[in-house]
Automatic annotation (TrEMBL):
One of its GO terms (molecular function) is monooxygenase activity. Keywords: Monooxygenase, Oxidoreductase. Gene3D superfamilies: 3.30.70.100. The lineage of its organism: Bacteria, Pseudomonadati, Pseudomonadota, Betaproteobacteria, Burkholderiales. It comes from Paraburkholderia aromaticivorans. This is Antibiotic biosynthesis monooxygenase.
Length: 108
């Protein structure tokens, strides 16, 4: 399993941002190999994190290379005050079973 974490500081959003954000989420959720997602906010630091989980690196790369994702990436400076992406190979996960990564856990 792989995770891709998009960490960013929000700037000024507009309708184009929201349209692309919704579209990328729809594309990701429809891709074979998509396992789920989680979103977090650190209000003190002003940071937002969107974590996507993928069955394989190839599945993750499908989203990274998708034209809509590339379009949003090329325009990010219009909407964000900085970002970082962390791609990780998940070695293991465990818990008591009470928390499950949901396939649609991202606010609309």
């Amino acid at each position: 399993m792989y995770s891709s974490t998009f960490i960013f500081r929000a700037g000024q959003y507009d309708e184009e941002f929201h349209r692309l954000d919704r579209k990328i989420a729809e594309i990701a959720r429809a891709m074979p190999g998509y396992l789920g997602e989680e979103s977090w906010e650190n209000a003190t630091a002003g940071l937002i994190q969107n974590v996507y989980y993928w069955e394989s690196e190839e599945a993750l790369l499908q989203l990274i290379r998708h034209p809509t994702h590339l379009e949003a990436k090329s325009k990010q400076a219009h909407w964000l005050d900085g970002y970082r992406v962390v791609i990780a190979k998940v070695i293991r996960q465990y818990g008591d079973g009470g928390l499950v990564t949901r396939k649609e856990n991202r606010p609309a």
